[in-house]
């Protein structure tokens, strides 16, 4: 059986299709298709407060493409979720309804708490009994979660993200609010390890020297950030071979990860290959399992 997730973020929209594998009593998810397209909805919303007709038309076209890909893969069930940009757009729900009428793809606009919950459901699998600070930086928001002994102790969503910073539209006092929250919720006497999710930290990690298979140091993330920042936008694309929609947001995103790690006193960061799309697929599978038991 194949399931799919569509994640419509402030910078890009992603489709992931996974096959469900059963081995005795265990279940795993094998990725068979992944497509990412840079819609950059956050540009509209953070500047104008709504989605433009042009962005709506591009999103509808992309949903039609993703629907066709799911049909070709014979996907049985899927879920499409939109996050910061569409939930903040004054016309977000109207746009979602029109796209559903046009493409038959239903878009669920989820709040920051639900977004964090879906990501946490997969991230927790990468944790042990130490204190972790999970940092997920999107285009429009940053989600922070504190774990001890694999249990979530606290969480908070902040209106600061890579696209929002690029556009100069972060909310007033956002940096101070994050710093205060981190210092209030991290027990420095226990030590803390950061765990990072999001496309930008994954790219930074790919460029970095590794301390473990899934980890690197704060110093190395800072080195890579400064290395990328030393190039012009054109050179980031042509010499560093970054996608255009990654080249302009990777430094603002790095600044968030680095700042949060410093405030928390975290010298190491783990970067698992997980994200919202994986959480959506697990949610779809859990819903199917519950229906079968009824």
TrEMBL record:
SUPFAM superfamilies noted in UniProt: Actin-like ATPase domain
InterPro entries the UniProt entry points to: ATPase_NBD, GppA/Ppx_hydrolase, Ppx_GppA_N
Name used for this protein in its record: Phosphatase
GO MF, one example: pyrophosphatase activity
Start and end residues of each Ppx/GppA phosphatase N-terminal domain: 25-281
